[in-house]
Amino acid sequence: MYQRKIEKEYRCGMEVTIEVIGGKWKPCVINHLSTGKKRPSELQRYIPVASRRALNIQLNEMEEHGIIKKTVYPIVPPKVEYELTDLGKSLLPITMAMEDWGMGFREQFLNIEIKKNLNK
Hints:
Layout: H1 13-21, H2 26-33, H3 40-46, H4 52-64, E1 68-73, E2 79-84, H5 86-89, H6 92-118
Antiparallel strand pairs: 1-2
């Protein structure tokens, strides 16, 4: 994981939450893993716009924070699966609320984006 030059102090809960689930794809991954174990290729298909590298970095960060568990099976070729830990499952109300809010605001957001692009 990236080493900061200046350590964060995490003075409030919001800073901790953002550190753990802040990332372009982390909430999406958490929601997708809510239905059970997934292989990396399944996650990639679920979020096709995410690069494999970006997804890998965020999966590693979530594993380090104890949000997901990675299981590597000792077979050839290697098989890897990710699943939510109990701590990860405790984030589902937050990420599901984000999904619900986004879907409720989606149409308005798309209209705003269309207007912005027309004015360019």
